[in-house]
From TrEMBL:
Biased composition annotated in UniProt, kind: Polar residues: 232-243
Region (Disordered): 223-243
Signal peptide: none
Coiled coil: none
Protein name in UniProt: PIG-L family deacetylase
PANTHER family in UniProt: BLR3841 PROTEIN, N-ACETYLGLUCOSAMINYL-PHOSPHATIDYLINOSITOL DE-N-ACETYLASE-RELATED
Amino acid sequence: MKLLDPRTLPGPVWVVSPHPDDEALGCGALIAALTTLGQDVWALLVSDGAASHPGSRAFPPSRLSALRLSEWRAGLAELGVPPEHTQTLNLPDGALDRCDPAVIRPRLQAAFAGAPPRTLLLPWRRDPHPDHRACWTLLMAARPAGCRVLGYSVWLTERGTPDDWPPADEARPWAFEIGGAAARKSRAISAHASQLGLIQDDPGGFTLAEAMVARAVRGPERLFEPLESGGTAESLSRQDGAP
Ligand SMILES: [Zn+2]
């Protein structure tokens, strides 16, 4: 696996999160490295994040969504991405696979209009969460031609099957070592208090496991660049239609 040099990623770089926290867990150190280098980095939040604690009375969906948006912006600020470099789509958490790419495409293009991406960081196409996979499909249908795409992994190590990892002819694997960014990455993850035990009145609610957070902070971050990245949208949709 080759080491990723952040100086080789053309800007503007957009980091796309299906849910608040994916960016911090999956590629927080890379984001910190890019902003430290002075790269033009932007962030897009795709879902409203309202589904992590469906049984909480203290945090009904609208309050939870507002909290998670503020956590996302606080975590990004730790990584050097200011609030004015953020965009949100507010699509329904847990139901991104029911969103029509043709309907979402103009909204994505509008979100990107101020700084069209030359590099997109997305959860890997088979990162094992339905929203993460749907996010890939939505973004690949809307990305500008020639835009470089790297899929970061969030749940691949914990939940992935061997088939979820890309074979050598599908994507080029990259590793990004955490290095001196561990403290910033850790603070960015810690900003997501709602996912770390803050909400106490929903026993079925989601909580990030300590071991998962520790692995994410330890690194390395793993990214996969589809071999057709930079190719035409047509060739990509053909591959996305494959089983
Ligand atoms: Zn997620």
